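Sequence in, structure out. Go.
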Amino acid sequence: MAEDKFNDLPLEWVRAFEAAGRLGSFTAAAKETGLTQAAISQRIGYLERRLAYKLFLRKPRGVALTVHGEAWLPYVSSGLNTIGQSSAQLFGLRRTQLTIAASASVIQQWLMPRLVTHNKPLQLTFSTMVVEADFKQQTADVEVRYGTGQWANRTCTPLFAEQLTPLVSPALLATVKHWQQLPKLAVSGPRLGWHDWAQFTGDAA
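Output:
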């Protein structure tokens, strides 16, 4: 059956994809998993051929997730995290664990650099989640989320504020008389901030 190819994906392929997607680098994934970069690339290649979809864009200076890879990563991370947590609970892992859930970009660009000097006896586990993931589906000890912090049954601590600045290519702007004549952006997924922008500019959201 066609679905069989999805039901028996080799775990080592999936782990290679999750590590590379979360860290944004085949080299970093190889270092974390104890494999070579070539082995990571090979396993991801096998996985892409099995799924019949590209999961990464290969670039001269690294890799980036494709739309399909970015959409799949939170589910893969959640599944592997469930395996790890259940194994620890059932088989008596004797370490203090802390599970942190955040978006892939926050983990890679904000959390990881700050945890390099972390030396406390903790077993850190990272779980990748989408921006508006359902709280009921999250079992992490700590969640780094984007929003106002008005969430029920959560103790929220603001980390920092943000300042957004609209940018446009001068060449593109020169093709119209007014910036509002530029093509509309297609927003996929959550539309956080777009309603505020529409209210500020008077445009339809």
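Check: Strands lie at 56-59, 62-65, 97-102, 123-128, 142-143. The chain is about 45% helix and 10% strand.
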